[in-house]
Amino acid sequence: MTGTLINALTVLIGGSLGTFLGNRFPARMQETTFASLGLFTLVIGITSALVTGNPLIVLGSLLIGGLMGEAMQLDARLERFGEWLRHRLVKEQSGGGARFVEGFVTASLVFCVGPLTIQGAIEDGLMGDYTKLAIKSMLDGFAALAFATTLGPGVLASILVILGFQGGLSLLAGLGANFFTDPMINELTATGGVVLLAISFRLLDLKEIRAANLLPALFVAPTAVALMDVFGISYYL
Q: Pairing with 143, which of 17, 31, 117, 172 sits 20 to 30 Å away (CA)?
């Protein structure tokens, strides 16, 4: 959990600084910063998606995972959780509620879906190597600053998701050290890359996609690879 704790600390520092500076940033600078994050997320998403050895696994995982996410209404539940946190952490302000929830949901997805989250958490849990999470922590710290200047303190609430999701991955990886194979990690990373693309479209105001409802795909992808192994089906196309 060392890497996750470092990650949470950098988001706390960056998010706090961004919240403090938010009103002092001109609107045009905030828009440009947001667009930069959207473009960077787009590039990372494409790069991650290309590591797949079998695009059909990614496609199937997204379709099945998306249906599961819609059935469980994960996006709506995440927003309700953000609203619940806002009522307990932030004083009511005009228009502040929607912005808090958007900051929480957007930051949580960006910080917890990327390839560095998955690979870094697994390596931290399996080998105690938190190098990738240390790199991710630096990126997330600056991203938290940028997000918070526009979306406010909701970004800070994403720390809870980082500790729960990313930390949980590390703990699970530690328990199942012999379970994850390279193909499983590759397909999980590639599927996460496509989910990141959905987030980038939202950041760039191109299309509103319920990215949180795609999160089950991150569990479907490695499970599909494991089942193919069990039944002796070739992983590569």
A: 172
Q: Report pTM.
A: 0.76
With residue 2 as reference, give the H or E element that holds it. Answer: helix 2-21
- Does residue 56 surpass a pLDDT of 60? yes
Alpha carbons 225 and 52: distance in angstroms, whole number: 11
3-class SS of residue 237: coil
In 3D space, the residue among 137, 103, 91 whose CA is nearest the CA of residue 117 turns out to be 137
Per-residue confidence band for 11, with pLDDT thresholds at 50, 70 and 90: very high
Nearest residue to 235 via CA among 173, 189, 183: 183
157 near 85, Cβ under 8 Å? yes
Instruction: Give the CA distances from residue 89 to residues 3, 51, 109, 132, 153, in Å, rounded to whole numbers and listed in that order.
Output: 26, 40, 20, 31, 9
